[in-house]
UniProtKB/TrEMBL annotation, chain A:
Keywords: Cell membrane, Membrane, Transmembrane, Transmembrane helix, Transport
Principal cellular location given in the protein's record: membrane
Compartment(s) of residence: Cell membrane
Domain of life: Bacteria
Protein name per its UniProtKB record: Peptide/nickel transport system permease protein
Annotated ABC transmembrane type-1 domain residues: 93-283
Transmembrane parts of this sequence: 32-54, 95-121, 142-168, 214-239, 260-282
Record's bilayer topology term: Multi-pass membrane protein
Family: Belongs to the binding-protein-dependent transport system permease family.
InterPro entries: BP-dependent_transpt_permease, MetI-like, MetI-like_sf, OppC_N
From TrEMBL, chain B:
The family this protein is said to belong to: Belongs to the bacterial solute-binding protein 5 family.
Name of the molecule in the record: Peptide/nickel transport system substrate-binding protein
Transmembrane segments: none
Organism (species): Paenibacillus silagei
A Pfam family the protein falls into: SBP_bac_5
Solute-binding protein family domain residues: 100-454
Compartments reported by the entry: Cell envelope
Keywords: Signal, Transport
Record InterPro entries: Peptide/Ni-bd, SBP_5, SBP_5_dom
Residues spanning the signal sequence: 1-23
Top-level taxon in the UniProt lineage: Bacteria
Length: 298, 533
């Protein structure tokens, strides 16, 4: 980690995504971030190639072979309908990664401009926007997403929207903080002085400089989104049966814990745990790499 | 629109929070708090009973009670004019709903054309408050049922025209027409006799959260989120109960109820999941009472919605259901195949017309005849709260997929499901039904009679309606049964539902408990129970 930090010392800390090679090598030298990245890569590959990797059809019921413990033919065992849990966990990765991506995109694409506008223009507009964000933040995130999902109606897309909305204030506040400090920078003032449009200043000058912390938030937000979406499915507000989703699989299997069929909940649980761990480690690694103060301190 | 919905959800949520706060300090009914201390010191030490229940109940008002827990609470605190007898079947005690026994009414007389019943009340019986149980209270209680939103339908089902007080201990009930179910309906919790004087002094809302009856137990605490506590009414007119205290622990998760029972933390648990029965049976300290009930489960198809308006399509669905998988795989044998719209242990049941079996070829052939050779998509609404429903739905979905029919499962919370069901617009759903009066007339009258209040799938058949109306007026039991059988055969052939199964009522209890009897309404009566050491 420290050697990587030294080698990158000379490069400017600002638009990091513009130098992917440096960023990647920095990340790979951060051991925890590398582990996180590995988990994410594995799950992404699994999500993309699930139909080819899965040994069985995840939706075909086989009551003669229900509740079989892990064995050679079913590595992760079978559920109460005789469906192969390994196949369902693999297919579940698709839903979880996809839900996370969509939800974070919603949060990012709505939260970022809101925060930017609120900080750049300030005044009443800014106050209104940021107070609304405060209201959203004042609710426990799971409860708020449950309320939103329930009012839209159960289903995968409503879960995505609910999780996305809940994530908006985080991005808005982060962007707000960044913009407030960037707004006073000389190059922004210079742009304003030569009559560059506000829209252009926000998009071309402020956004790229504020992107680093937003990237960190987006990565950490993926983990949060996967967990919240799984929680919604666990509570019956997510996917429809028979779709394989980790949270829903745990919900279906929880009745079987006391009768000893541990594999129904363990494997989807591990899926959730490893994918969230992956995003959190990567997010932390991003922060370490992108934050010049942390880096120079090494 | 969405915003309004969201806002209302938030408002509802804050109300819910407020509700949680108030239930942390549950109401202690005023009437009972005074007497309990003295009674406890005077009486010998009695055994206490703790029961794990699934839901917390919604009201204590007998006229409005409409769910298992509310009904249980009402029957513990109130008495009715008449009650059901008990018979023994295969060593198990089972209520015989056709055998009507006196309770608060000592005796009754019926006029020649079965339209006027004169009840003579037992003398010297008083409510828990000390007020006497008199004819005025009976008339008042019946009037409350007539005006209630939940019980008024039963009032109509019982064909009650008027209730007249003849003297302090005589009540005359006049019916609009002879009704063979009248006394059976009177024995239900809805027709509990309430303490008129207490209600009038405490106000109309008093009964929602307090009990004012003459029953064997006094309510000392009711908090729908946690528990309900009853203490024995030692001056009960039939003799003091042998239990000192009855506590109902509200435990929603079935696996938790099984754990509590297995560890001996509760003496009794209701609604045991079928898959846990065999494990519990190996526990020597426990007895599992699994009785065939008249609770049925059916796959309902809206007869007005395409393609289910076509009888062939409905029959095809009947042929595509994996009955054996449902019975053995989902219910672990704790259920019985259902072969008529009426439960098989209901008098007058017939399986005439039942030809269905799991046969995908027949299902396909029928779909072809109906013009749906390539299959179709349809919406299915799954109400939450019952694990077996979801299992059934997933299995049926998998079979239907094999004949090209795509069943789209929409999950709804139970309250929303019940709300939507009432609109008569759901395309298809799975639902259960228990007829508290074990009679085909009562049962079909709700569910499949054209104007039935729970006929949510728009089943209309003029002949069935005519048979039902005819049977309702028929006083001869044999002739009436014949009419009901004809109606059942038509219904089974037309297949407005696919019949799934008849549940067993499963109650697990400690071996020390004696006196348990199964009632078709599935409510446990605590008075006859005792615990031995």
């Amino acid at each position: 980690m420290s050697t990587a930090a030294h080698s990158a010392q000379g490069s400017p800390a600002k638009p990091a995504p513009a130098k992917p090679r440096t960023l990647l090598s920095l990340l790979l030298h951060n051991r925890l971030a590398a582990i996180g990245l590995t988990f994410i890569l594995i799950w992404t590959v699994v999500a993309i190639f699930a139909p080819w990797l899965a040994p069985h059809d995840p939706f075909v019921t086989d009551m003669a072979n229900k509740l079989q413990p892990p064995s050679g033919s079913h590595w992760f065992g079978t559920d109460n309908f005789g469906r192969d849990i390994l196949s369902r966990v693999l297919y579940g990765a698709r839903i979880s990664i996809w839900t996370g991506l969509i939800a974070v995109s919603i949060s990012f694409l709505i939260g970022m401009p809101l925060g930017g506008i609120a900080a750049y223009y300030g005044g009443r507009t800014g106050t209104i926007i940021m107070r609304v964000m405060d209201v959203l933040l004042s609710f426990p995130s799971l409860v708020l997403s449950m309320a939103i999902a329930a009012s839209i109606g159960a289903g995968l897309s409503s879960a995505m929207i609910a999780v996305g909305i809940v994530g908006i204030p985080e991005f808005a506040r982060l962007m707000f903080g960044q913009t407030v400090s960037l707004r006073e920078k000389e190059y922004i003032e210079a742009s304003r002085a030569i009559g560059v449009k506000d829209r252009v200043i926000l998009y071309r000058h402020i956004l790229p400089n504020a992107l680093a912390p937003l990237m960190v938030q987006a990565t950490l937000g993926m983990g949060f989104a996967i967990l919240t979406a799984s929680s919604l499915s666990f509570l019956g507000l997510g996917v429809r049966p028979p779709i394989a989703e980790w949270g829903a699989m745990i919900s279906e299997g929880r009745e079987y814990i006391i009768s000893g069929q541990w594999w129904l909940v363990t494997f989807p649980g591990l899926g959730i745990a490893t994918s969230i761990l992956g995003f959190n480690l990567l997010g932390d690694g991003f922060r370490d790499v992108l934050d010049p103060r942390l880096r120079s301190g090494k | 629109m969405k915003k309004v919905k969201l806002l209302s959800t938030l408002v509802a949520f804050s109300i819910m929070l407020a509700g949680c706060a108030s239930s942390a300090n549950p109401q202690t009914p005023a009437a009972t708090s005074a007497g309990t201390d003295t009674a406890a010191t005077a009486a010998p030490v009695k055994k206490n009973l703790t029961v794990a229940y699934s839901e917390g109940g919604t009201t204590l008002d007998p006229a409005e009670a409409n769910d298992l827990t509310s009904d249980t609470l009402v029957l513990a605190a109130y008495d009715q004019l008449v009650t059901y007898g008990i018979k023994t079947e295969n060593g198990a005690s089972i209520a015989n709903t056709e055998d009507i026994k006196p309770m608060l009414a000592e005796s009754w007389e019926v006029n020649a054309d079965n339209t006027v019943y004169t009840f003579k009340l037992k003398s010297g019986v008083s409510f828990q408050s000390g007020n006497p149980v008199d004819a005025e209270a009976v008339a008042y209680s019946f009037e409350r049922v007539a005006k209630s939103s939940s019980g008024s339908f039963l009032y109509g089902m019982a064909s009650i025209k008027s209730v007249t007080v003849k003297d302090a201990s005589t009540v005359e009930v006049t019916l609009t027409n002879a009704n063979h179910n009248f006394l059976q309906i009177l024995a239900m919790y809805t027709f509990s006799i309430v303490d008129q004087k207490t209600v009038e002094t405490q106000g109309a809302d008093y009964l929602k959260t307090n009990a004012a009856g003459s029953g064997p137990f006094k309510l000392t605490k009711w908090d729908p989120a946690t528990e309900a506590v009853f203490t024995a009414n030692d001056s009960y007119w039939q003799g003091a109960p042998s239990l000192g205290k009855v506590t109902l622990k509200f435990t929603k998760e079935a696996s938790n109820r099984v754990l509590l029972l297995g560890k001996g933390d509760v003496d009794m648990a209701i609604e045991i999941p079928p898959k846990d029965v065999s494990t519990l049976e190996t526990n020597k300290a426990l007895t599992v009472a699994s009785n065939a009930s008249n609770r049925i489960l059916f796959f309902a198809m809206n007869n007005k919605v395409k393609p289910f308006d076509n009888v062939k399509v409905r029959q095809a669905i009947n042929y595509a259901i994996p009955y054996d998988q449902l019975l053995s795989g989902v219910m672990y044998g704790q259920a019985k195949q259902m072969k008529s719209a009426v439960a098989s242990n209901t008098p007058g049941f017939t399986d005439a017309g039942y030809v269905y079996e799991y046969n995908l070829d027949k299902a396909k052939a029928l779909l072809k005849e109906a013009g749906y050779e390539k299959g179709f998509d349809f919406d299915f609404t799954l109400g939450s709260g019952f694990d077996d429903w979801e299992d059934d739905a997933v299995l049926i979905q998998a079979e239907l997929a094999k004949i090209g029919v795509n069943m789209k499962i929409n999950k709804l919370a139970r309250a929303q499901f019940l709300e939507q069901q009432k609109t008569n617009n759901l395309t298809s759903y799975i639902s259960k039904w228990t007829s508290f009066v074990n009679d085909p007339g009562y049962h079909l009258g709700f569910l499949l009679y054209g104007k039935g209040s729970s006929n949510y799938i728009n089943y209309q058949n003029a002949e069935v309606d005519k048979l039902w109306e005819q049977a309702n007026l028929e006083t001869d039991t044999a002739k009436r049964t014949e009419l009901y059988k004809q109606a059942q055969e038509i219904i089974t052939t037309e297949a407005p539902w696919a019949y799934l199964y008849e549940y067993n009522r499963i109650v697990g209890m400690s071996n020390k408990i004696s006196g348990y009897a199964f009632y078709p309404d599935e409510v446990i009566r605590f008075y006859p129970l005792s615990i031995t050491e």
